[in-house]
Amino acid sequence: FLLYVRPNGLSHPRLGITIRARGSSVERNRVKRAVREFFRTSGWAKAGQDYNFVIPSEKKLSHPYPLNLKKALRQEL
Questions:
Q1: What's the CA gap between 39 and 58, in Å, rounded?
Q2: How far is residue 24 CA from its own chain's centroid?
Q3: What SS3 state is found at 18?
């Protein structure tokens, strides 16, 4: 994944998730839920920042990917 961070001038953080239409909508939504849950529960996001997670289109979004994504997010952030 790629993570872009920009200041937004607001008193709260915002989250954007970009996934290209590869795989089924069920798989894409599973990945989005994993990212949203991490964003909500981790507490690392700072107020006044925009965060945009970009999932490359060449990644397969099948079952183990959301679990691996959570592990990668914890390690990197």
A1: 23
A2: 17
A3: strand
- pLDDT tens sequence for the chain (77 residues): 788 999 998 999 999 999 887 778 888 888 888 888 888 888 878 888 999 988 876 656 665 766 777 777 777 66
If 0-12 CB within 10 Å is exposed, 13-18 middle and 19+ buried, where does residue 41 land? exposed
H helical segments located in 1-77: 25-42, 64-76
Q: 3-class SS at 15?
A: strand
Q: What is the pTM of this model?
A: 0.71
